[in-house]
Amino acid sequence: MTSASPLSPGVRSPRKPKGQGAERREEILDAAQALFAQKGVHAVSTRQIAELARISQPALYAYFATKDDIAAELCVRAFAILGQRMAAARAAYVLTPENFERCLRVYIDFGLDHPDAYRVAFMLEKSVDGSFLEKTGGRPMLAGREVFAVFVEMIGELYAQGAMAGEDVMAAAQSLWAGLHGLVSLLIARPEFPWIEREALIAAHVAMLRRGALK
């Protein structure tokens, strides 16, 4: 006999003793991220999040006023991780054409290392009427644009070296970003597709992006 999944509806977890604020906040976010990634944002309630986090619903509201606030914080948290990885890559590598593929891999590795975080930040619809950004003060978009700005700076450095094809830095950055997102989102969303060996696919994809972007 198999046990029910902790994400299954109707499964009630025992309440946790009151913990430290920062720790409890992260537990709420982790529970919400798991539920959002499995069911989608719209299908999840704050009651379900509280159940999985093993706290009461009123206790959840002491940290987050709405489900939108939780989703927004998850986006900000995901972008922060990606931003940290990009910053580390810039510190570790001299940005040259030879290191270009390594820099592109930072994005891919982030998404595949954190698939649930990636789903919530990049792949899931947050509001049917498009009001999510307004309700959350635009924080997710601001955090995402800050990370993208670092990527644009990296591409701009290669343009300054005369290494990039074309003349439009922003067009190149957006095209490369879209190419990276396409691969990551497909690998996360469609694992059942008969892909070739994952590392071989990633290497081939990044090499094609490099050949298209560099002179």
UniProtKB/TrEMBL annotation:
Annotated segments matching region Disordered: 1-23
DNA-binding span(s): 45-64
Keyword terms of this UniProt record: DNA-binding, Transcription, Transcription regulation
Gene3D superfamilies, A to Z: Homeodomain-like, Tetracycline Repressor, domain 2
InterPro entries: DNA-bd_HTH_TetR-type_CS, Homeodomain-like_sf, HTH-type_TetR-like_transc_reg, HTH_TetR, MT1864/Rv1816-like_C, Tet_transcr_reg_TetR-rel_C_sf
Domain of life: Bacteria
Pfam families reported in the protein's UniProt record: TetR_C_33, TetR_N
A GO term for molecular function: transcription cis-regulatory region binding
Ranges of residues in domain HTH tetR-type: 22-82
Record-linked PANTHER family: HTH-TYPE TRANSCRIPTIONAL REGULATOR BETI, HTH-TYPE TRANSCRIPTIONAL REGULATOR RUTR
Protein name: Transcriptional regulator, TetR family
Source species of the chain: Caulobacter segnis (strain ATCC 21756 / DSM 7131 / JCM 7823 / NBRC 15250 / LMG 17158 / TK0059) (Mycoplana segnis)
